[in-house]
């Protein structure tokens, strides 16, 4: 008998559970016009009951019918909506990055849908889609500025709509597990640091303009050229400023090394140091020479490719210098293989001291 009553109560509670599920998955918020509309419906219903006027009952039925139609259409506009986020370029700290949001819809089109994206450590960003065709897609661009290196996570998305009559704002939210790697903050450092530091360039010619000591060509002075490159004797003969370009004498690149992380730095100073390392790698890469990096945790042999630069940035984005477990299992440091010409080895801490002194 108890089981019978239990099953009866379970069946009778189905409408309540369905209503509760709908309210949790499709939260409804009254708009200003919707609040007035509901109060007007209540007033018409009260007048119909007191007077018994059939016309008022007809008007009340039409008003309540609009509420039902509004609920069905708005729910259909949110059902089956999904979003895909694609970064337009690499993510760096302090640099605004654009994401392409591709919203897809199911069997029913979406009309006047607002997509609200909630990012980690970021304010919510809203994108408006006036029309999403059935079984089609719509695109929007969303700008995000990461505040710290590591992972940028998209926590959840909320789809909002007031379609069709603007009586209620119905929403549908879903959690997201997407995340992207944010590289450290980078800036272009003076190329003279790379040009003057480290060992001398090798005597092997590369037959291209670059950093070196062998003359490559003479040209007219252009705004922004360093005065130390001006050939004053030749300029005096030609009665105009002449600049000497040099030939890059080695294509085996620069090999930056860090024997140990400077543990005396605070957390904020360590972030500046990692950003400086990334900026140093980027500046050396911009010269067109292969660049490598050696740290207590990883070794990147000198190469000249964008993918290699991205791998170094990826490592610097996720490294935790204060994690003792990472530095305890230190792999054996690899050095560039036996070549006729070895890359220059440059100490990162030496550059950092110069950089810190000039700040």
Structure overview:
The structure is a single chain. The chain has 359 residues and is α+β, with helices and mostly antiparallel strands. The chain has 3 domains: 156 residues, Sandwich (Immunoglobulin-like), CATH 2.60.40; 127 residues, no CATH class; 45 residues, no CATH class. The protein is built from 10 helices and 16 strands. The strands form 4 sheets. Strands 1, 3, 5, 6, 8, 9 and 10 form a 7-stranded mixed sheet that branches. A 4-stranded mixed sheet has the order 15-14-13-16. It has a 3-stranded antiparallel sheet with strand order 2-4-7, with no helix packed on it. Strand 8 and strand 9 form a beta hairpin. Helix 3 packs antiparallel against helix 4 and helix 7 runs antiparallel to helix 8. The termini are far apart. About 6% of the residues have low confidence.
